[in-house]
Amino acid sequence: MSGIEIRKVTARIGAHVSGVDLSKPLDEETVTALREALGVHKALVFSEVDLDDAGQQAFARHFGELTTAHPTVPSIDGVPNVLPVDSERGRAANHWHTDVTFVLNPPQASTLRSLTIPPYGGETLIANSAAAYRDLPEPLRRLADDLWAEHTNDYDYAVPEEALNDEHAAARAQFTSITYRTAHPVVRVHPLTGERGLFIGGFAQRIVGLSVAESRKLLDLFQSYVTRPENLLRHRWSENQLVLFDNRITQHYAVDNYDGLPRRLHRVTVAGDVPVGTEGKESYSIQGDASHYTAVAA
Q1: List of residues 6+ apart from 260 with CB closer than 8 A
Q2: Which of 167, 176, 215, 290 could form a disulfide with 206 if both were Cys (CB 3.0 to 4.6 A apart)?
Q3: What are the distances in angstroms from CA 267 to CA 11, 99, 123, 165, 264?
Q4: Which of 113, 184, 248, 252 is labelled catalytic?
Q5: Among 178, 183, 157, which Cα is nearest to 71's?
Q6: Annotation marks residue 97 as catalytic
C-alpha cells in the first residue's frame, strides 16, 4: 500500500486517490484503506486509470459480489454486469437519485468509468446524505427518523409526457417493464459507520401513511437539505477516470448541459444489504422480484 495518497476535494464530500494501480489485484491492506476512505469521504476519484470492462469489474469485486447491470435495462452485449450510461441511448436523465432504491437491497457501492467525454459539461454531482441529515434542525431530524418512504421505478423520472420522443418513450418503457415498489426508512443507518443519512431521492415517491400531496411536500423539504451546495461534489469528467461512491449514503445527478454531444460511461455496482432504519427495522418489498438482479444477503 506504500505510496497511496488521499486528498480531499471538498470539506464534506469527495477525495482524489493516487498511488494505486487499479488494473492490478489489490492487497487486503489497500482495500481496507480504500474502504475506510470511502466511509469518510463518500466518493473517491481515480484518474488516469488503465481499465477495460473486465478490469472495472475486477476492481469493483474487491468490495463485494457484483449485481447484474440493472433490473430492467440491458447490459453491454455479452457483459451482464456492466450498464452503459450513454447519452445516445436515452441515458442522459438528469434527476437526483440513489442507484436502484426501488429494490429491496440496493447496491452498496457504484463505480462509473469514463469512456467518451463531451468537450464541455456532463458533470456528475454527488451529494452527502449524512451531512444533509446532520444539517436538519432537531425537530425535522426527529420527524425523519420515524418516517418510511415507498420507492418505485414506475414513473417517468426523466422527461415529461409531452416531451417524449420515440427514443425516450422506448427507454422509459424498458425502464418500467417490471414494476418495483419497496418501502425504505427515510433515515438509513449505515451498516459500517453507523452514520444516519437521508435515504430518499427521485425513486422515493410517497411517505408511508401520507397522501401523495403531503408526501411531496415533506420529501421536497428533506431533499432540499441533500442538495445544498455545501454537501455536493461536482465532478468534471476527464477520459480514463473512475469514480467510486457509497450508494448507501449518497445521491447523484448527471447534468445534461452538453448540447446532446456524445457522453458515455460504464457502470458496475456492488451488491448491498437490506437497509435498516433508526429502530432496527429492515426495508420490505411491496411489489417486484429482483432476484435476477441481485441476491438478498442472508
Answers
A1: 87
A2: 215
A3: 26, 11, 15, 25, 10
A4: 252
A5: 178
A6: yes
Catalytic residue among 12, 41, 70, 97: 97
What contacts 24+ positions apart, CB below 8 Å, involve 170-177?
170/90, 171/89, 171/90, 171/91, 172/90, 174/72, 174/73, 174/74, 175/72, 175/73, 176/72, 177/72
Stretches in the chain below the pLDDT threshold 70: 1-2, 89-93, 156-168, 296-298
Query: How many other β-carbons are positioned within 10 Å of the β-carbon of residue 217?
Result: 11
Nine-digit cell string for 286: 411491496
C-alpha cell at 235: 465532478
Q: Is 21 a catalytic residue?
A: no
267 is catalytic: yes
pLDDT tens per residue, range 149-164? 999 998 755 445 554 5
Please state whether beta strands 43-46 and 15-18 pair in parallel, antiparallel, or not at all (unpaired): parallel
Q: Out of 12, 99, 190, 246, which one is annotated catalytic?
A: 99
**What's the sign of the alpha-carbon dihedral 289, 93, 250, 189?**
negative
For the stretch 175-203, pLDDT in tens is 778 899 999 999 999 999 999 999 999 99
Amino acid at 94: N
- Predicted pLDDT of residue 2: 59
Which residue type is seen at 280? Answer: G
